[in-house]
Amino acid sequence: MNTSLPLELVLLGWSVVLLLVHIGLQGQLATRERGTDWNAGPRDGDAKPLGLHAGRAERALRNFLETYPAFIALALALAVSGRTGGIGAVGAALWFAARLAYIPLYLFGVPYIRSLAWLVSLLGLLLMLIRFL
User: Fold this and answer.
1) For the CA atoms of the chain, what is the radius of gyration?
2) Nearest partner of 33 among 56, 50, 18, judged by Cα
């Protein structure tokens, strides 16, 4: 019995780890700036603005969340429809690699290459969509 998963589903599982990295990084950097009392408290009222790295981590997380639902939907659609593999798998790998690279590129403020990583992630989604349709 073959129990290996298609690459799209393996990357779907790893994408949850990537989500947790985003959330953890953003939370740690925000707590470092705003303090543990803020983190443990009800967070009522206006929070002080985030500094350089915490702000970038928050924006990187929001950016990730913009494409993440599409990745989840496409990975599951490819698996359910039996259309895994081919350019869909290439697209999933591109999306994942680009989203992984995006984190340090954004945190360290690397222009142009960060935008290129974002475009590569969109290309990955497009390849998955083409394979699905």
Assistant:
1) 17
2) 50
**What is the structure's pLDDT at 104?**
97
User: Which are the contacts of 94, defined by CB distance < 8 A and separation ≥ 6?
Assistant: 120, 121, 123, 124, 127
Structure tokens at 130: 């083409």
Q: For residue 48, is pLDDT > 90? A: no
pLDDT above 80 (res 3)? no
CB-based contacts of 10-14 (< 8 A; 24+ apart in sequence): 11/75, 11/92, 11/93, 11/95, 11/96, 12/71, 12/72, 12/75, 12/76, 12/92, 14/96
Q: Which residues contact 109 (CB under 8 A, 6 or more apart)?
A: 56
High-pLDDT (> 70) share of the chain, %: 98
